[in-house]
Amino acid sequence: MTIPHKLAVSFLVLCASAAAMMLVFYSSFDAIRRATDSSNASQTVLSKVQTLETSILRQNSRFRGFMVTADPTYLKSYREARAEFDSTYAAVRPMLSDPEMLRNIYTSQRETLAWRRDWGDRLIALVERGGQQQAQQMMRDARQTVMTSKAVLPLRAVRDYESKRLVREAERQAAAIHTGMKTLVIGGIALIATAILLAVLLSRTIARLITRLTGTMAELAIGRHDVEIQGAARSDELGDMAAPCWSSATPPWRSRLPRPSRRATMPSRSGQSTR
C-alpha cells in the first residue's frame, strides 16, 4: 500500500470513528428532543385541564352567589367562566390521543352543558324574572343533583393521567442525558485512542524509516558504503527512496542487503530504471 493510500485509510478510520460517535450523539439528542416535546405537550394539556376544572368551579360558585344575592356582578364572572370553558375545551380536545382521555374530556363537556341547561342558565333566568325564592327552593330540593361533580371528576382523571405521563417523560429525558454523557466520555476516549494509534503506526512505518534513510544518505555522502540500508525491499515510495542507496552501496556489501522491490526497479516514465 502506498503512503497516500495509508494516509487516506488513516483519515477514513478517524472520520468513521467521529461519524459513529456523532450518530450515537444524534440518537441521544433526538431521544431528549422527543421526550421534551412529549413533556411539553403533557404540561400544556395539564394546564388546560386545570383551566377547565377551575372554570367549572367558577361557574358553580358564581351561580350560587347569584342565587343568594341576585347581584348581577356575579353574572359577569359566570359568563366569563362559561366562555373560558368553551374555548379551552376546543383547544385541548385535539391535543389528546388516548381514547379513554378523549372520552373523559367529552364526558366533562357534556355534563357541563347539561348542568348549564338544567340548573345554571335556567335558574339564573328564573331569578332575573323575579323568581329568586322559587329558584332557591329548587336548589334545596335538588340537593346533590345541582352540583358539578359529574363534570369535574372526568377532568381529574385526565389530570392524573397527564401527571403520570410527565413523570415517565422526565425519566426518559434523564436516561437519554445519561446515555449522551456516557457516549461523550467513551466516544471521546475511543476517538483519541484511535488517533494516537494511527499516529504511532504511521510514525513507525513512515516517519521513522524516513529518518533512518536520511541518516543513511548522509553516511553514503561522506563515503561510507557499508551502512545498513533499510526499506529497500518495500513496494511503496519509501522503497523508491531506498533504491538509490542500495545502488550506491559497494558490491560486497550490496550482496548482504535486501534487494529493492520490483516497483523500485521498474522503468521510469523516461524509460530508464530507477536503480
Overall description:
The protein is mainly alpha-helical. The protein has eight helices and no strands. The chain has helices at 3-69, 73-92, 99-128, 132-142, 149-221, 237-248, 251-254, 262-265. Helix 1 (3-69) packs antiparallel against helix 2 (73-92), helix 1 packs parallel to helix 3 and helix 3 (99-128) crosses helix 5 (149-221). The relative contact order is 0.10.
Approximate helicity band: over 70%
Radius of gyration: 43 Å
- Given the helix and strand composition, which structural class is it? mainly alpha
The shape is: rod-shaped
Low-confidence stretches: 252-257, 261-275
- Average pLDDT: 79
Seen as an oligomer or otherwise, the chain set is single chain
How many β-strands, per DSSP?
Answer: 0
Helix-strand layout with pairing:
Layout: H1 3-69, H2 73-92, H3 99-128, H4 132-142, H5 149-221, H6 237-248, H7 251-254, H8 262-265
Structure described in brief:
The chain has 8 helices and no strands.
Keywords:
single chain; rod-shaped; 275 residues; mainly alpha; 8 helices
